[in-house]
Amino acid sequence: MKRTQLINLHLILAALLLPAIAMFSITGGLYTWGVKGSYDTETFKLPIAQPLKGDLASMVAFAQQEMDKQQQAYPTGAAKLKSNGHTHILEWTGSDLDINLSTDKNSRQAQLAIKHTSAHRYLVQLHKAKGGSLFKLYAAIMAFGVLIIMLSGVLMGLGMPKYRNTTWLALGAGIAIWLGAVSLS
Questions:
Q1: pLDDT at 53
Q2: Pairing verdict, β 109-117 and 97-104
């Protein structure tokens, strides 16, 4: 690849992906230090005619019925069920809302918590792959684009005699720092 083509590829990808790279960098950095955003939570106590089965499908179906009554969209992420034999808890997460549905084995009441994300928590949820399929595809393409940006930058540095030694030193230092951080964690 010619040097001008490499520079253009690097420039275009960097500019195109900067918003997503900034989002992932900021939310990831803040999350590392416990800054995760917040929720606005509504809790409902729901009478039930007969105890709910403790399986994922029936808990999701019941949650969907209640979400429809509340005129709420379903979470965009995956649902999972936690059970200790007595209490069943459905956790269903998404980018803009999470729900928790809990009930005891023989109870005639369920509790539904609908948690709406703050703006920052929304971005954190996207970072954690809790968004829809379109954003997940975008994030995967962006991750590949970041690798291309890094590789093209290193190739440009190695291709110019003036920057070759600096590039090798920085690349070696980066690998050593990464290995050190991984081995000490």
A1: 81
A2: antiparallel
Per-residue pLDDT, 61: 92
Q: Which residue from 129, 153, 152 is spatially nearest to 140, judged by alpha carbons?
A: 129
Q: List CB contacts of 91: < 8 A, sequence separation 6 or more.
A: 79, 80, 81, 82, 98, 99, 100
In this prediction, residue 176 has a pLDDT band, given cuts at 50, 70 and 90, of very high
Q: Are residues 8 and 64 in the same domain?
A: no
How many other C-beta atoms lie within 10 A of the C-beta of residue 81?
17
| Predicted pLDDT at 122 | 95
For the beta sheet containing 39-47, the strands, ordered from the edge strand earlier in sequence to the opposite edge, are: 39-47, 109-117, 97-104, 87-92, 79-83
104 strand-pairing partners? 87
CA distance 152 to 46: 57
For residue 107, tell me if it sits in a domain.
yes
Domains in the chain: how many in total? 2
**Tokens 């970072």 -> residue:** 127
Structural domain of 64: 39-117
Q: What is the mean pLDDT of residues 8-36?
A: 95
**Phi, psi torsion values for 146, nearest 5 degrees:** -65, -40
E strand or H helix at 45, and its extent? strand 39-47
